[in-house]
Amino acid sequence: MRILVCVKRVPLTGGKMVLTADEQALETRHLGFTISPHEECGVEEAVRLVEHHGGEITVLTLGPPEAEEQIRETLAIGADRGILLADGGEEWDPQATAAAIVTTIETEQAAGGEFDLIVFGNESADSGNYQVGIRVAHALSRPVVTGLKGLSVEDGRARCEQEVAGGRDVYVVPLPAVVTVLEGINLPRYPSVPAKLRARQKPVERISPERPSARLEKLRLVVPPGQGKQAEILGQGPDAAPAVVEVMRELGVA
Amino acid sequence: MGDSGLPATARAVLIGAGIVGNSLVQPLARLGWSDLVLIDKGPLPNPGGSTGHASNFIYPVDHSREMTELTLDSMAQYEQLGVRTECGGLEVARTEERMEELRRRMSSAASWGVEPVSLVTPAEVKELVPYIDESVIVGGFYCPTVSVVDSLRAGTLMREAAQESGALTVSANTEVLGIDVEHGRVTRVRTTRGDIEAEVVVICCGVWSPRLARMAGASIPLTPAVHQMIDIGPVPRFAGAKSAIEHPIVRDMDTNMYERQDGSGLEVGSYAHRPILHDPEDIPSIEESALSPTELPFTEDDFVQQMEHALELMPEIVGDESVGIKYAINGLLSLTPDGLPVLGETPEVKGLWSAAAVWVKEGPGVGRALAEWMVEGEPEIDLQASDVARFHEHQKSVAHVRARASEMFNKTYGIVHPGEQWASSRDVRLSPFNERERELGAVFYEAAGWERPHWYESNRPLLEEFEVTERETEWDSRWWSPIINAEHLAMRDRAAIFDLTAFCVFDVVGPGALESVQRVSMRQMDAKVGKVVYTPVLTARGGFRSDLTIMRLGDERFRVVTGGAHGMADLKWFADHLVEDGTAQIFDLTSTWCTLGLWGPRARDILASTTSDDLSHEGFPFATCRTIEMGPLRVLASRISYVGDLGWELYVPIEQGARLWDMVWEAGEPHGIVPAGIGVYGTTGRLEKCYRAFGFELDGEYDVVEAGMAWGKVKDQDFVGKEAHVRHREADPATVMCTLTVDDHVSSSGQRRYMLGGEPIQTRDGAPLTDAKGRRSFVTSAGAGPSVGKHLLMSYLPPEYANVGEELAVLYMNELFPVTVAVAGSTPLFDPDNQRVKATGAVAA
Amino acid sequence: MTVLVLVEHDGGAVDELSLQALTFARSLGEPEVMLVGGADAVERLDVATAHVAEDERLALYAPGAWASALGEVIDRVAPAAVVAAGTNRGNEVLAHLAARRDLPLAANCTAVVAENSAGGAGAEGGGLLTVTRVRWGGSLLEEARVHSQLPLLSVAPHALPAAVGEGAPAVERFAPAVDDADLLVRVAEHVDEVTAGISLAEAKVVVSGGRGVGSADGFGILEELAALLDAAVGCSRVVTSAGWRPHTDQVGQTGTKVSPDLYIACGISGATQHIAGCKGAKKILAINSDAEAPILANADYAVIGDLTAIVPAITAELRKARSP
């Protein structure tokens, strides 16, 4: 199988969101970065498919030059090569993002053959636009199934499972296809030291696409006002148990 | 405790509830202080500082006695708290050079009494740590008492004990907004939960300490720096682990790394990467941090080589594809410009104390010692090397701290030669002789920022003239030159000039000056104007606070001259003991005066040719000073000697220094004068004369009687340490300062070896010598005695061994070399009657 | 000015989140709604017109077909904007529409204003909409301008009250033109899963644990308390990443979003990722050793101290209170 996984570099946030002075981004001076959680599971899922069916995994990201770090993370858990669409440090809107990905996929497919499966996260942790995978699928005229919590491939078809109220909805689509996955579809592995070292030798190609003007134009970010709650301290230690039960009674849940 | 449960006043406020703050509260309470308040801006038990992510292991053996003593005390305290697990620890060598360093470790272990320790073969290492690949190592150093402690639990227990005793209020989540100072004294800590009035405030908040000190206008020179670590697992071999640590810790010294089992995982830490320093003002808040403020995002690029090294050493675990990297951080820790902690009352603000740059391994020991210092004025373990007052102004600069911390970082596991010089932040303080010295090919060593010639390459021809012993091994001759010995012999033969500008010079003046200097000086200061007095300065317990000379320049003016390295602490000590009525003042004149030393049998002739003043023995007796005229220069000349020859210290204002040098040089040329470096002044010259040096023979843990310096009678006037000193005189000393000679230098491999200091003195059978107070005998100073033709060692010996002719041994590089006691006490080995210093004749022979 | 709203229903009742979307749409103009099937469900909708797509093949969800149906209504009605609830389906259908017509889609909006008041919003006035939308699962908001003649907007769940009121909308049934490509992706099968215990999303009480619980075994005391309260057990992302609990138990931005009457957060510091999942709770009780943990700024009640002592004490107290 030839699989492409699209991932996004996002900051690892703490208990508080702090913005840059121009309100255009999170202040990340003190923060580390990671792969957006759904996509991390997407990479793991791809690795498992390839372990089972054989094949090759390409990882694609659109992000700052530093996003190579996240590509290397995926190479360390089993992806084979990376493509970094280096943005100019500005955020791309979902349409522009999808278009850049489509252009890259078309070039890749022209050179190396079709991707049987293109994997996205259902939505990115930071911007949460819920649409890039679907846009890419349309541009490539591929079926797309979103929000997967289960995936298997057999006989050129993908069996896709969504968690819904009361159970699971199952879709079966022919390959090539696009899927978007959710965290929980698997528990991603931690990379081993030898895998980390191997990852440093794997190829990462850099492309610098032009950013078109945004049609969903970010004006500014706002930290929502806190809920203004002042927790009522019911007590210290086990002695507080009666007060807790009293509150449960008042709420009608005891 | 409620929201604003902060008391309005406190005996002391401690800022920071990491290992240091927690270690302080109990000893303070035990020593009688109550109304203590411990605050931290973070939550408890882990407020987010360096303690929270510490590796928590303790290797007791260090080349520094002070650090080893603090570590041993800490281990005992952790043991008492029930949070210590002894797992053993190895230091493995990948190179022969490192093996040599591990042999040197054996000496340090024996000197400080850490036992048992042993050198082990690769096969023995493999037996202790079966998952190691022993083929990449050549051997190891094994210390079975290496331990892992639970520093957070220890902190909680110590804190709670102090709370239960009623002496302590703890307030977490309380951030300091300001520290108020009035008339040079700390008065108040302002916090997010209210103000606390206090006359004593302790800053013990690790990487944040510089920020807090700055609030009060004081300086704690340290920088937060990154130490990288990763945790990998689960390790199949550790699957059944019942506790966090069951296997010995391994320090892979040559790669600056360590590996330790942690439950089912293996922690791999490193000091190998490039130094990554942070600005103390720029540490994230707790809320902004993904993990904690001192657990910063891991920078993998800095850790690549370390992964390869770990893979080489422990392929079974690190190479296992199923063992994943589960946690990786850039942890922040505190680095200081000289690698030592920053302890004591700040020289800038009375009542403001620093307890910073302390690691988990020495935390409780520091807590106890600092509490003693705070309450009783003096700790049992001598902390003078770590005194916050040690820093000269330039050493407090951010540039200096960062430069030295960067240099220090990669020496964490480095092989650091005792003579090793800093490469960074040099050429900061240059004496007026510097240009001349450069022309003469001076090799400069640094002291207190001053560039001082250690020897002069221009003297290389002297090697033809004098018979000098070369040293065979690279280690023994590193940071050393045979030229030093040649300069020494030239001085003894003719005369030499020395650049002594690095001296700290300060004047105590005013009607209260005499009483002020009397208070801190063991010897009588009520001497005639023009008298120079060499005096010990004692601690309250009668140990050495310093030793220095004081010139009485007038009825109400005393000039104190002391070593550069310790000068700032001396300045604070004198300032702290000025008479309370304000009738004495102290002025630091270090940067006003330069000092040129001139000694040797020709010194009088040389100097006499530059002046018409009377320099005869009668006209200018020993231990006096006065101003003489040398051409247009009015020179303060002081006739004393630290090298055992006739001569003077010559003081002029710095801008006249070059002229002074030229005059003495020109006058000396017909007499064969040579320039000589500190190699002579600080080592060979004094060792032959059995002169002691502060920080080597003399420190707070030894007294005047033991040092053999209790000559004369005790003066009537009161002085710090008098009571103890009188008591010491009445009893037999527990140990006696001796000078020993090395009888045979040849090692088992046939090389001549030369000890450098710090080695244990043992019986010829290799048994350690321990005095009645439990102190081991070790070499306090080592060096050549060119005029006596011996390699000399100074050491305190228990009285039963302190006999001239006693045959003992020194353990060097894990081999015993025979030595003999040459002097017990302070009689000089060379020129025992001091004929040369007295030099009563008008002209030397 | 007409705003077209995609309304979801379960056959009998309109989805609560769709009613919230309706409230949102009203702030822009006069809503008309489209449903796929469910003509009987329109009674609660206070709108003039309900377009109901009817086709047996749509009985099972097929996002492409839904998008086609919605597209037909758009072409017929020429709305100034299209709105859906920010549900999986709402976002997905709008995304398909956006992709097909190359239009921007602003997902999970909480507010909208027309920048150019002269001509109202959207197509008619040529003015642009400015939306406030959710990022980071609600921990951050974005103000964004939608450069489009036909803005597509989904509405963040629980950002607005549900539209109430009775209506008698004119029901316009239509058979959408659906081709095979639209049906390629369609629910092929529904597997019922009887979850043991109480579903996290629907539980009235959730007992949740974080890093402070310490281990997988540490959840034993939480399970015991949960059993007494008929509560579900939840956890934070740290816990699932460590493998202590399955991901299905995770409450948070990338896990389940819960809305119980009482959420008991044990040893959970309150990272934004977690708060995003539990802020829908009516009341939050935090049990934490750190009185300043971020969770406390989001909690109604707190007990400070060691959860391993406190949780069993609460269990014991409950038992005591219930025993006769």
Topology of helices and strands:
The complex is a heterotrimer of chains A (254), B (845) and C (324).
Chain A: E1 2-7, E2 9-11, E3 33-35, H1 37-53, E4 56-63, H2 68-76, E5 81-86, H3 94-112, E6 117-121, H4 132-140, E7 144-154, E8 157-164, E9 167-174, E10 177-181, H5 193-199, E11 204-207, E12 216-222, E13 232-236, H6 241-251
Parallel strand pairs in A: 1-4, 1-6, 4-5, 5-11, 6-10, 7-10
Antiparallel strand pairs in A: 2-3, 7-8, 8-9
Helix pairs in contact in A: 2-5, 3-4
Chain B: E1 9-10, E2 12-15, H1 19-30, E3 36-39, E4 57-58, H2 65-81, E5 84-86, E6 89-93, H3 96-112, E7 118-120, H4 122-128, E8 139-143, E9 147-149, H5 151-164, E10 168-171, E11 176-182, E12 185-191, E13 194-198, E14 201-203, H6 209-215, E15 223-233, E16 249-252, E17 257-262, E18 265-270, E19 295-297, H7 304-313, H8 315-318, E20 324-335, E21 342-345, E22 352-356, H9 363-376, H10 398-409, H11 434-439, E23 442-447, E24 450-456, H12 462-465, H13 474-477, H14 482-493, E25 496-499, E26 504-509, H15 513-520, E27 532-538, E28 544-554, E29 557-562, H16 564-576, E30 585-588, E31 593-599, H17 603-608, E32 625-630, E33 633-638, E34 647-653, H18 657-668, E35 674-675, H19 678-688, H20 722-730, E36 736-742, E37 761-762, E38 779-785, E39 790-797, E40 807-812, E41 815-824, H21 835-838
Parallel strand pairs in B: 1-13, 2-3, 2-14, 3-10, 6-16, 14-22, 25-35
Antiparallel strand pairs in B: 4-9, 5-9, 6-8, 7-8, 11-12, 12-13, 15-18, 15-20, 16-17, 17-18, 19-20, 21-22, 23-24, 25-31, 26-29, 26-30, 27-28, 28-29, 31-34, 32-33, 33-34, 36-39, 36-41, 37-40, 38-39, 40-41
Chain C: E1 2-6, H1 16-26, E2 30-36, E3 49-53, H2 63-77, E4 81-85, H3 88-101, E5 105-114, H4 122-125, E6 129-135, E7 140-146, E8 152-155, E9 170-174, H5 180-183, E10 189-192, E11 205-209, H6 220-229, E12 232-235, H7 237-241, E13 262-266, H8 272-278, E14 283-288, E15 301-304, H9 307-322
Parallel strand pairs in C: 1-2, 1-4, 2-3, 3-9, 4-8, 5-8, 11-12, 11-13, 13-14, 14-15
Antiparallel strand pairs in C: 5-6, 6-7
